[in-house]
Amino acid sequence: MSRPAAPRVTIRDVAAAAGVSVTTVSHSLNGKGAVDPATRARVKQVAAQLGYRASRAAQALRAGRSGTIAFVIPSVGAVAEEREMLSLDYYMQLASAAARVAFTRRHPLLLPPPIETLDDLRELGVDGAILCDPARDDPRIALFEELGLPIVTIERDLGRPDHRWYVEGDNRGNMRLLLDHVAAAGGRRIALLSADSTWSWSADNEQAYRAWCEEHERTPIVEPTSLRHLETSAYDRACALLDRPDRPDAIIALAERYATGVVRAARERGLRIPQDLLVAGGIDSHQAAEGDPPITAIDLQPELQGAAAAALLVALTEGERPEAPRIVPSRLRVRASTQRT
Amino acid sequence: MSRPAAPRVTIRDVAAAAGVSVTTVSHSLNGKGAVDPATRARVKQVAAQLGYRASRAAQALRAGRSGTIAFVIPSVGAVAEEREMLSLDYYMQLASAAARVAFTRRHPLLLPPPIETLDDLRELGVDGAILCDPARDDPRIALFEELGLPIVTIERDLGRPDHRWYVEGDNRGNMRLLLDHVAAAGGRRIALLSADSTWSWSADNEQAYRAWCEEHERTPIVEPTSLRHLETSAYDRACALLDRPDRPDAIIALAERYATGVVRAARERGLRIPQDLLVAGGIDSHQAAEGDPPITAIDLQPELQGAAAAALLVALTEGERPEAPRIVPSRLRVRASTQRT
DNA sequence: CTGAAAGCGCTTACAG
DNA sequence: CTGAAAGCGCTTACAG
């Protein structure tokens, strides 16, 4: 059974133990004011010894801020679909990295309920948010701005070229890298299962794909694929592609889980990967890495993106004007699905 | 660009607008004290009109609690593996449901960094935690109790039969249901890929499996499978099973993603599912539902489990002594992998 | 270099 | 039924 809660160690306790005022404790611990270095050191030591940590509630009240930030995943239709989004490796890695950095900066990350109205947002009571993959003119950005709250997006809102607080990968460069790689692996007719959304990530990738095709004098083959029921949608689109008389010999499956659907469609048709069909993913995942076969994919390095977004957001909540946007480097993970050797 | 933050509407503003004292506002809004019904109604209306919401920071400071709770996922080895856990459908659905309920009860759910020491926990500053799948004698439970903080587990700690604050499914009943179903579908030699852990969920399932085998005079075939690299581990174990001279004609793949590994192993050997091999999962997921073939599985109803855990925990933080443990009903989802018709 | 005091926005014991 | 006041634990402008 749990014992009664230990009474909290407050700044007064530290002050008493160190024989100074609470002002001096506060200054010492926060690196503010002009405190005798010896005093500062002693205060720090006493505080550590007593296991003192400033009350987040008190700090928040004093500062007039909540000290928390929200992590908001993309909304794709109804709640049931949100769950599918939530369990994607990419978002979970973003969330986990963002949580770690935010926490270090004394801004715990919280998992919010869906935000649709200004009232929802007021009720949420956060100092700001990280919003993943905003739709074009995402209404949630407007809500935050309405309340004067900073919002950092991962990927950008195509309807707001002025909103520069975002983090993203070099989407166009990544798509070119992927295409060059697939072409070098022998892909002649390279199709794209694009993500049917208004996300900048989708648009950037598709645009780069089309530009690359034009430069290389190849006919673009684009199949817009739903972001709901990722695997099944991709399977359907891949079937359509593979049943064409001029079927592609390579498919780039843009969104997470798309590749699994492509692999299934290929298998059903007796097409071997990579011998008969090259497959590559626009975004890496556990499933891509451990699937059968393992799928070559772009690793957007969500740990770096999430960390960058959190750092940016915390800086904004503190009134700073940090450098933005931030472009995070990505990596091409080459795997069996594009290696014919 | 974002406008300056709107000044917060405080209880004083409401009091002034309603022409009463802050005491009366507080009482009216919180249903406390003896307030004239007409006054109460007026205050509520004015508050709503001004868009007033009590400052969580102020309430937390007053109450001496933080007003937040942590959602802690199982630790399986290093950080990299935690990420794999985090992106499982099951935990995400738990988290999402728990977040919703907790938020409604004014206890936002936060995503904590790993908790290993008492200091980590103090630094975290939450009022309690929901801990998923505790290991036997999970050290984190002891840490919370050390600080007098309530902790609700999803599944129970096998080393602490006294800790009754948990939520779980009817694991043994579920396994029997699954076995009866698989046997009815024609399974004669039914093997179990069990989860190699000290979780109660694993233990309950394995125990029920063995008991069922004994009752039905069948030889148990148990392959303990690692919880790291779920799919690959399951693939390896399934290969071992399927290469035995007396290979099973049915495999129960306990943990999430195990079934995918089993399917791969079967396919490589030219075994058709369900004709040559029945496959069922101990836990449902998107992957199971949308895979090829769709996999019969137990749906633990994580939305209900997460909601129950949050409700239980919030009650505990408020000093109540709610009914516990709570057993949440599960569902058998029958799919193509066990239907030979 | 140090400290007394005000005040952030609540809730509640208490007085009327 | 209503309200004035104390106090939760901080930070900071200000005085010394």
TrEMBL record, chains A, B:
| Ranges for domain HTH lacI-type | 9-63
Keywords attached to this entry: DNA-binding, Transcription, Transcription regulation
Q: Does the keyword Transcription regulation apply?
A: yes
List, alphabetically, the InterPro entries matched. HTH_LacI, LacI/GalR-like_sensor, Lambda_DNA-bd_dom_sf, Peripla_BP_I
Pfam annotation, one family: Peripla_BP_3
Molecular functions per Gene Ontology: DNA-binding transcription factor activity; transcription cis-regulatory region binding
Among its keywords, does the record have Amino-acid biosynthesis?
A: no
Tell me which PANTHER family the record gives.
Answer: LACI-RELATED TRANSCRIPTIONAL REPRESSOR (PTHR30146), LACTOSE OPERON REPRESSOR (PTHR30146:SF153)
* Protein name per UniProt: Transcriptional regulator, LacI family
From what organism does this protein derive?
Conexibacter woesei (strain DSM 14684 / CCUG 47730 / CIP 108061 / JCM 11494 / NBRC 100937 / ID131577)
